[in-house]
Design a protein that fits this description.
Blueprint (H helix, E strand, L loop, with lengths): L1 H22 L7 E7 L1 H18 L3 E7 L2 H9 L5 E5 L7 E16 L19 E4 L4 H12 L9 E5 L2 H10 L3 E5 H10 L2 E4 L7 E9 L8 H15 L1
Parallel strand pairs: 1-2, 1-3, 5-6, 5-7
Antiparallel strand pairs: 3-9, 4-7, 4-8, 4-9
Helix pairs in contact: 2-7
Length: about 240
């Protein structure tokens, strides 16, 4: 009962802040923001925009939680965070999804791996050792969906290891003979340096969509509304 009352009080606080800003543009209270984002977004997309946002909003203290997409959605529904950024997953009725960015998931291997010389098909994956992300990962969900369209069952593939987190998977595949599937956003530097090589699988295109997620009814709450608009503007200028 107390918890439900506190949620109402929190919503009233958001509404008061918005009304005070309308009365006086100089109104600038100290604000704490709780945001959650999936691994790729937390590591490779949000850091520069967070720096730019905090420079313009010095009274804001921001906490960013880094989890896989499934757990970010769970944190939002449990009111642990008020804004999430996740990879596209099954829609939930009481959550609003706002499109943000698109990214490609690609197959990569070590520069020392003979696979780098080959062009593969989805069916070839039945005979290639794989290193994949953990269950609940948006990257894994995109891969599984793409495989299903080619009538390839992920459960029947020779998965050697599952690793929690993009960096762990990158570090593993650098020194191993496994093939991995990683976001292009996450391996850009390694592809340029030659540490990792993209393996072409023409019949297995994988594009994923990143979305802002908010509980329905909170979409206009400040400062989160401003943060979403700022972030979209930031990336529209850098594209």
């Amino acid at each position: 009962m107390l918890y439900k009352k506190l949620l109402v009080a929190k919503q009233l606080q958001h509404e008061l802040h918005q009304e005070f800003v309308k009365i006086s543009e100089d109104f600038s209270p100290r604000i704490q923001m709780m945001i959650g984002a999936s691994t790729t977004i937390s590591l490779y997309v949000l850091p520069p925009v967070l720096s730019a946002y905090l420079e313009q909003n010095p009274n804001t203290q921001l906490t960013l939680k880094n989890r896989n997409s499934e757990n970010i959605l769970k944190a939002l529904l449990e009111h642990e965070i008020d804004l999430g950024v996740i990879e596209g997953i099954n829609k939930v009725s009481n959550v609003t999804y706002t499109p943000f960015l698109t990214d490609e998931v690609i197959a990569v291997c070590s520069a020392k791996n003979p696979l780098k010389q080959q062009q593969l098909s989805a069916q070839d994956l039945y005979s290639i050792p794989l290193a994949l992300r953990e269950s609940g990962s948006g990257t894994l969900a995109v891969l599984e969906e793409a495989l299903a369209q080619k009538h390839v069952k992920l459960s029947e593939l020779p998965v050697k290891v599952r690793l929690g987190g993009t960096e762990a998977l990158k570090n593993f595949v650098r020194v191993d003979t496994c093939l991995a599937f990683l976001p292009r956003q996450a391996v850009g530097k390694e592809l340029i340096s030659g540490e990792l090589v993209q393996v072409q699988i023409p019949d297995l295109p994988m594009v994923r969509h990143f979305n802002f997620i908010q509980r329905k009814g909170t979409e206009n709450n400040l400062p989160y509304k401003n943060f979403v608009q700022f972030t979209k503007r930031y990336y529209s200028k850098t594209e």
